[in-house]
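Sharing in case it's useful to others searching the archive later.

Someone asked me privately for the predicted structure of FAD-binding PCMH-type domain-containing protein, so I'm posting the question and my answer publicly. Question first, with the sequence:
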Amino acid sequence: MSSSSLRQANIVSLVRAARGRKADHLRSLLSALGSAFIFLHACTINDGSNELMYASTSRINMKTQSTSGLSFVLVLLFSSSWAASAQNHEDFLQCLSLHSQNSTSISQVIYTPNNSSYLPILQFSIQNLRFTSSDTPKPAVIVTPSHESQISTVIKCSRTHGLQLQIRVRSGGHDYEGLSYVSELPFVVLDMINFKSITVDTETRTAWVQSGSTVGELYYRIAEKSKVLGFPAGVCPTVGVGGHFSGGGYGMMLRKYGLAADNVIDARLVNVNGEILDRKSMGEDLFWAIRGGGGASFGVILEWKIKLLSVPKDVTVFTVDKTLEQNATNLVHKWQSVASKFPEDLFIRNFIRRVNSTRDGQQTIQASFNSLFLGGQDRLLSLMQESFPELGLAKEDCTEMSWIESVLYFAGFPRGESLEVLLDRTPLVRLYFKAKSDYVKEPISQNGLEGIWKMFYEDEAETAQMIMTPYGGKMDEISEYAIPFPHRAGNLYKIQQSVYWEEEGEVAAERHISWIRRLYSYMAPYVSKLPRAAYINYRDLDVGVNNQGNTSYAQASIWGFKYFKKNFNRLVKVKTMVDPGNFFRNEQSIPPVSLRRKKKGD
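And my answer, the predicted C-alpha cells:
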C-alpha cells in the first residue's frame, strides 16, 4: 500500500480523535492527516452542495423534545425588525395547528427558539462555521415534517400571512452560502431530515429517493440489493439528495454516466398552492427545471425517481501525490490535455494544495492525482502507459475493490470500514470556508500554473485547495439544453477553489475571503468568458444576488447566466408559469418574468 493510502487509512481515527478538541488543536490535526486531508476537503466542498465530514455513533432524534402545545408558543425574535412581526409568527403557528389533519402530530415537528431542541436541530446540519455566529439570522420556526401534508400546510400558512415568513428548504445543509437555513428576512426552515425513505427495485433498475436522504444512505441501500448497480452522485456521504440532484450533482462516474440529474426519470414536489405533483401532473417544463435549475425556486422536492446504472464487479482506485520537486507542474500541464480524452471508464481528478516539503522547515505545492477506473488494474496500467506515462503509475499504486468500497475510499474511510458509516449523517469536524468555481476550455500555461502555486504560498492559503475535475466522455455527448445545467462539450475541466480557516471572527473571515477573491481574479484570463461560468451547487454570492424583496430579471441575470447560460431564460419562463408571485425565493432564486415588467428600469 502506498504512503498516501496508509495516511488515508488513518483518517477516520484521526478525525474521531479530534472530537471535543478546541479550535487551536485543529491545525495540528490537519497536519497529521497529511495528504489524506484531500478527501476531507472533497467532502467539505463537494456537491451541492458538500461539507466536511462524516459520522458519529450518536444521532439527534428530530422528534423528541417537541413543543408542548401551540396555544402558548411565542416566537423569540432576534432583532428589533423582527419584533414587529411577532403577531404574524404566532398567527402562522396557530394556522399550522388549525389546518393540520392532526394538531398533535404537527406540534411534534415544530421548533421555536424557546424550545430546548431548537438550536441542536438548527446546528445539526450546518456545515459551514461562517453561519454559526450569534449574529447570523435564525429562523423564527423550524419544521421537520414527517408527512407530506405537513409541507403543504406550511406553504399555505406562510402564504396566508402575507409572505411575512419566507421558506428555506434544507435537506443536507451543504449550501455553500447557507441559503437553506439563513435569510435576512423573517423565515421558516423546512428541514427534510425525516424524509429519508429509499426504495430500490433491482428488476427495473430504478429507485425512489426522498429528498432528505443523503447520498451515503442512497449508496448503502443500493449496495444492500446489488453489487453491480450504482449511481453517479457525489463523494461526500452527508450531502442531501434534495439539493444535490436539483443543482446537477456529480461524482466519480461523471465521465461515464453524466450528472445525477441526468439520471432522474421522475420526481414529486409540493408546488406554491400546496399541491403534490409528479412528472406527469407537473409537466415537462417544470420537470426539466428542477433537474439542475435549483429546486428551491419552484417548490419543495419530496422525492426523486432515479435510474440505477451498471458498475463492474471490481473497480480500481489510486491516489498518486507529486510535489513541485517531483515534476508536478509539468504533470498538471499534461493532465489538462489528456484527462478529458481518456476512455469514459477512467476518471482522474487533481487536487492542488500546499504541503510540508521533505526539506526541513520548507513547504511546497503538491498535486494529488485521484482516480476511479471502472475495470481491473491491468487494463488501467495499460491505458495509463499509453495515454499518461509521465505520471509513472505503478501496480503498487493501484487497489482493486468493489464499487461500494470505492465509495468509502473516496469519502476518506479506510478499506475494511463498515458500510454502516454511510448511514451516519453527523459531521465530526466543521471549518469556516469559502469556495468558488470555474470552467476551463484551454489548458492553462505553465507560467499560469506557477502563478497559482505562488498564491498558494501566501499565509491565508495554508489549508486552501483547488480541485480540477475532468470533463469529456458522457458530458460531451449530452446537450447543454437537455437540463438547466449547461456546462457540457467544450469544457476540459471544472475548477473548485476553496479556502478554510479555524479562527473565529470577521477579521479572519475577511482575510481568507479576500485571498480567494484575489485567486479568483488571477484566474480570469485562464477560464471561460462571456459568461464566466460557475456551478450552482458551489454556491457563490459574489457572482451576483437578487434584491432582498422581489428582484428584476436584469438583476438576476447577472448571476443567472453564469450558472445556466442561455437556459436561464427558459428557467424564468417556467418560474413565471408555476410561481408568478415569487413565493419561493432567495438571494439566487429564479425570478418570474412579471417582475421584469414591473421593474423594467432596473
